Amino acid sequence: MNTTWKSKLTSSLFVLPYLILFTVFLLIPIVYGAWMSLHNWDLLNPVHEFVGLKNYAKIFDPKSYVHNLFFEGLKNTLKFVVFSVPLLVVVGLGLALLINSLPGRLKGLFRTVYFIPYSVSVSVVAIIWLWLLDTNSGLINNYLTGLNLPAIPWLTDMPWAWVSIVIATLWWTIGFNMVIFINALNDVSEELYEAGSLDGANRWQRLIYITLPSIKPTMLFVLITSTIASFNIYGQPYLMTRGGPGTETKVLLMNIVDEAFKQRQLGNAAAMSLLMALLMIIISVAQLRISNRKE
Amino acid sequence: MQSKASKTVVIIVAILIGLIFIVPIIWMLATSFKTDQEAFTAGLKWLPEVFTLENYQYALGGNADTPVLQWMGNSLFVGIVGTLIVLVVDTLAAYGLARLDVPFKKFFIAMFIGSLTIPWVITFLPLYMEFNTFGLLDTYAVLILPYSANAFGVFLLYQYFRGFPKELEEAAFLDGANKWQVFTKVVLPSARPVIWTLAIFTFMGIYNDFLWPLVTTNSPGMRTITTGIAVMQQGSFVSSPAKLMALTSIATIPAVLLFVIGQRSFIKGVTQSGIK
Amino acid sequence: MNKKKWLGVAMTAALAIGSLAGCSSDKEATSSKGGKDKITYWAPFSGADGPRMKNIVANYNKSQDKYEVDLQIVPQTDYYKTVDLAFSGQKSAPDLMIMHTDQLTNYAEKNLLKDMTDTIEKNGVKAEDYSDTAWQAGSIGGKQYSIPLDIHPLVLYYNKDMFKAAGLDPEKAPTNREEFVAAAKKLTDESKKQYGFVVPTLWPNQFIYPTVFFQNGGELMKDGKPNYNSPEGVEALTFLSELVTKEKVSPANVQQDGEVTLFLQGKNAMQLNGPWMMEQWDKAGINYGVAPVPQLGTKQQAVYANGHNFVIPASVKDSKKLEGISDFLKYAADNTMEWAKSGQAPASKAIYEQNDEFKKMVQQPQVAKQFEYAKFAPRVANWGQLSEPLWAEVNLALLGKKDPQKALDDANKKAEQLVQK
C-alpha cells in the first residue's frame, strides 16, 4: 500500500512540470479569455463591468460596428483560405511528384532549392516580395513594361492584392508541404506500381488509382494543417498591403488585434477570438469527417 | 522506363521552377549592394553600377535603432531555450503517461490531446494580459514560456514511448534501477530521433513566430529578428530599399546556410514525426 | 534594461523547474542617483528627432544638480500601447511624457492626465509664450492638460530641378488651387512617367484630406456626429480623385509610400507630407523646396496639423517631482532650438518669432508660417477609432473603386455606428 502510494507520487513528478506549464499558459488563459469576453473591458478603465453575453450579441447585431469588424474580417480570411489552401496542397504534391521523377542525384539538390524559402521569416518574405512587386520600381513590373505589357498594380488593386499575398505565401511555405508529400510518396509500395504497370495503366492512371489513394492520410494532414495555418494569416497582409485596398485584405486577426490594442476594447476582442477559434475547430472536424465518410 | 527526352524535359521544368525560388533571393542580394538611388532606377540591371558596402555598414553600424546582431542573438536564444524547455518537460510527461502509474492518467491524456485542437488565437489576449499582470512583457520570459504549453511534443513522444519495447525497461528495473535512471539511461537514448524531430519543429515555430513577439516586445533591444525587421520596414527604412535589402540579407544568409546544412536532419525529422 | 532581461531569464529558468516563486519581489526602486531626484520621461522619438531630444535632456541634466531627467524612448509604433498599459496600472507610469495633440482629449476625458494649471503658475510658464493654436489644444473643459512642444502641420515639398526644367520659377511655389493644378500639369510628362503631384492613397491622407476639407470650410465632426459626407467633404475628395482621373497629374493605384519613392526618383514634382520628412530628402540629396500648403480648398486657408505636447500622468503627486518637472519644462521652452534642428518648428514664441538662427533655417520658418491657421483633429475621445472607416473609404475613392459621395456616405454610416457603440 505504502509503496504504490510512493510510486504514484514519484510517477506524478514526471508529469508535473508540463502540467504546470499547461495550466499556466493554456488552461488559465482559456478561462481568463472567456471571462474577459463577458466584460466591457476597456484597457484604460480600471472597472470592468460584467455584461454577460452582450459582446457576443454585438457581433451578431448588424447595427454594431463589431459585427462589421468580425464578419468583414472573417470574409477576407476565408477568401485567403479558399485561394491558398487548394494551391498549397496541389502545388505541394505537384512539386513532390516532379522531384520524385528526377534522376537520383538531382533529387536532393532540387529538394533543397525548393525548400530554402521556408528558412526565412515572414518579414523577410514580405519585404522581398514588396520590392519585387513594387508598382513603379519592382523587377516584375519592369519586365512587364519591357515587354510592352501594362504594369500591374500588384498591391493596390483587386484581385492583384490577393494574388500577391498568395504568391508570397506559396513561395514561403510550399517547401514544407512538398517534403511531407515526398516522404509519403516514397512509402507507397513498389508492388502496387508493378501490379499497375502489368495491368497496362499509364502514368496518369497510376497517379489517380494508386498514388493518390495510398497517400490519402498525408493529403488530409496537409489539408488540415494548411487550413489552420491559412486561418491564422496575419503577417503577409499586415506587412504587404496593410489591409488595403480599402479594407479588402484586412483579415480577421488584424481586426482582432486592432480592436484590442488600438481601440483598447479587450472584451470585444476576446469574444471575437473565441468565435474565431470555435469556427476553426468546426472546420477541422468537418474536414476530418468528410474525408472519413468517403472511405 | 523514362525516355531520355522526357527526362530532359523534367529537368528543364525543375530548373525553371527552381529559378522562381532562387531569383527573389538573388535580387535581394543584388539590391543590397546598390545605393538607394540606383535601386530605384535600376530597372532590369542586376549588377550594381557602383558596388557599395555602405548599406551593410549602416545596418551593422551599431545604430541604436537597428541592433541587428542582437536581434539575431535574441531569436537564437529564445529559440534554443524555448526548445530545451519543451524537450525536457515533454519527454518527462510523455514517458510518465506512457509507462508509469500516474494517477488520473486517462484524464490527462485526453486533456492534453484534446488541447491540440484548440487554436492558438484563443489564448492570445488573455496570455498577453497575464504577462502584463506580472510585469513580464518585453522580457525573454514572454518570448519563451507560452510555447511550452503546446501538447504536440507530448503527443508525439507519447506515441513513441508506447511503441517502445517493454523488455528493455523491465530488464533495467530488475537490475535495480529506479524510474529516473531507466528514463535517462534506457528510454531517452533510444528516443533520440524523435526528440530531434520535436526540437526542429519547436525551434522553427518559435524562430518564425511573428504576431506574438511583435505585440509583446517594444524596446529595440528585445526584438527578435523577424519583428525587428518588420518594424524597420514600417519605420525609418521606408523608401530605402537598398538598406532594407542589406538588413534582410544579413538576417537571411545565416538562416539559409544553417538550413542547407541541417536540412537532411530536418527532412529525416519530418519523416519520423509520425505523419503517416 | 539589462536587469529586466536577466529577470526574464531567471523567471524562465525558475518556471522551467516548476517553481512559481519569486515573482515581483526584486523590482528596483526608482531611487535617486547622487542625491538627485529622478524624473522618468517617455517619448516616442525613435526617428531622426530622438538624438535632438536626448541632447536637450542631457544639457538640462548638466545645467543643474537638483534633478535628473531620465529619457526613455519608446518606438512610435508601440508608444500608445505602452502608455495604455502604464495607465492601466500594471506597469509603472512615467512622471512626464510626450503626447500627440489628437490623443489629448481621449486621455484627459478619462481623467488620466494631470491638470497642469498650478504647475504652470508656479514655474512661470505662460500661455502668451506659446503659439495660441498649440496652447489651446491642451485646454479641455477649462483645464490646461498640456504644454506644447511643437506643431507639425502638413507642408508642400517640391523638386526645384523639375520646376526649372518645366519652365517654372523654383523659388515660387503655388499658393492656390489654380496655380497648383496648372503647375502640376506643366510638370507632368506621361511619356517619361513623370508626374506633377502623385496622389497618395493611404498615409499621409490622414493629413491631406482633412486639410482640403478644412480649406473648404468644412468640419469633420459636427455636434458630436461624423460629418464626413458633407458637401465640403465630398468636394475635397472629388478634387483629390480628379487629380488622377481628370487632370491626370498622378498615376492611378499609388501604393503605400509610392509618392515618396517617386519623389526620391525625381519623378514626382510635388508632394504634401509632414516636416519630419526633411532628413530623408537631405540624405537623398534632392534639390527641394518647402512651402506652406497652397489653398487647395475653395473657402479659406487652413492646414491639418498634429503636435507634440508635454503631459503629466494624473498619478504623479510627489510635489518635489512636480517641481522638477516644472523646472525641466521651463528649460525646454527656452532651449528648443535644438529641437528645431530635426525639421520641426517649436511652438515656443521665443524660438519661432524671435530667434534669428531659427529664422535663417530653410524649412522650419515655412512650417511656423502655418501655425496661425493650423487645425487639429476633432476633439472627441475616440477620434482614432471614428476616423478608421474614413481612411479606408478615402483609400477606395482615390483608387477609383468608389465614387467620392458613396465612399463618404459609407464612411459616415460606419462612424455613426461607432458613435452609438
TrEMBL record, chain A:
<comment type="similarity">
    <text>Belongs to the binding-protein-dependent transport system permease family.</text>
</comment>
<feature type="domain" description="ABC transmembrane type-1">
    <location>
        <begin position="74"/>
        <end position="287"/>
    </location>
</feature>
<feature type="transmembrane region" description="Helical">
    <location>
        <begin position="112"/>
        <end position="132"/>
    </location>
</feature>
<feature type="transmembrane region" description="Helical">
    <location>
        <begin position="80"/>
        <end position="100"/>
    </location>
</feature>
<keyword id="KW-1133">Transmembrane helix</keyword>
<keyword id="KW-0472">Membrane</keyword>
<feature type="transmembrane region" description="Helical">
    <location>
        <begin position="160"/>
        <end position="186"/>
    </location>
</feature>
<keyword id="KW-1003">Cell membrane</keyword>
<feature type="transmembrane region" description="Helical">
    <location>
        <begin position="269"/>
        <end position="290"/>
    </location>
</feature>
<dbReference type="GO" id="GO:0055085">
    <property type="term" value="P:transmembrane transport"/>
</dbReference>
<dbReference type="Pfam" id="PF00528">
    <property type="entry name" value="BPD_transp_1"/>
</dbReference>
<dbReference type="GO" id="GO:0005886">
    <property type="term" value="C:plasma membrane"/>
</dbReference>
<keyword id="KW-0813">Transport</keyword>
<feature type="transmembrane region" description="Helical">
    <location>
        <begin position="207"/>
        <end position="234"/>
    </location>
</feature>
<dbReference type="InterPro" id="IPR000515">
    <property type="entry name" value="MetI-like"/>
</dbReference>
From TrEMBL, chain B:
<keyword id="KW-0472">Membrane</keyword>
<dbReference type="InterPro" id="IPR035906">
    <property type="entry name" value="MetI-like_sf"/>
</dbReference>
<keyword id="KW-0812">Transmembrane</keyword>
<feature type="transmembrane region" description="Helical">
    <location>
        <begin position="244"/>
        <end position="262"/>
    </location>
</feature>
<dbReference type="InterPro" id="IPR000515">
    <property type="entry name" value="MetI-like"/>
</dbReference>
<feature type="transmembrane region" description="Helical">
    <location>
        <begin position="76"/>
        <end position="95"/>
    </location>
</feature>
<dbReference type="GO" id="GO:0005886">
    <property type="term" value="C:plasma membrane"/>
</dbReference>
<feature type="transmembrane region" description="Helical">
    <location>
        <begin position="140"/>
        <end position="158"/>
    </location>
</feature>
<feature type="transmembrane region" description="Helical">
    <location>
        <begin position="194"/>
        <end position="215"/>
    </location>
</feature>
<protein>
    <submittedName>
        <fullName>Carbohydrate ABC transporter permease</fullName>
    </submittedName>
</protein>
<feature type="domain" description="ABC transmembrane type-1">
    <location>
        <begin position="72"/>
        <end position="262"/>
    </location>
</feature>
<keyword id="KW-1133">Transmembrane helix</keyword>
<dbReference type="Pfam" id="PF00528">
    <property type="entry name" value="BPD_transp_1"/>
</dbReference>
<keyword id="KW-1003">Cell membrane</keyword>
<feature type="transmembrane region" description="Helical">
    <location>
        <begin position="107"/>
        <end position="128"/>
    </location>
</feature>
TrEMBL record, chain C:
<keyword id="KW-0732">Signal</keyword>
<dbReference type="GO" id="GO:0042956">
    <property type="term" value="P:maltodextrin transmembrane transport"/>
</dbReference>
<dbReference type="GO" id="GO:0015768">
    <property type="term" value="P:maltose transport"/>
</dbReference>
<dbReference type="InterPro" id="IPR006059">
    <property type="entry name" value="SBP"/>
</dbReference>
<dbReference type="GO" id="GO:0055052">
    <property type="term" value="C:ATP-binding cassette (ABC) transporter complex, substrate-binding subunit-containing"/>
</dbReference>
<keyword id="KW-0813">Transport</keyword>
<comment type="similarity">
    <text>Belongs to the bacterial solute-binding protein 1 family.</text>
</comment>
<dbReference type="Pfam" id="PF01547">
    <property type="entry name" value="SBP_bac_1"/>
</dbReference>
<protein>
    <submittedName>
        <fullName>ABC transporter substrate-binding protein</fullName>
    </submittedName>
</protein>
<feature type="signal peptide">
    <location>
        <begin position="1"/>
        <end position="21"/>
    </location>
</feature>
<dbReference type="GO" id="GO:1901982">
    <property type="term" value="F:maltose binding"/>
</dbReference>
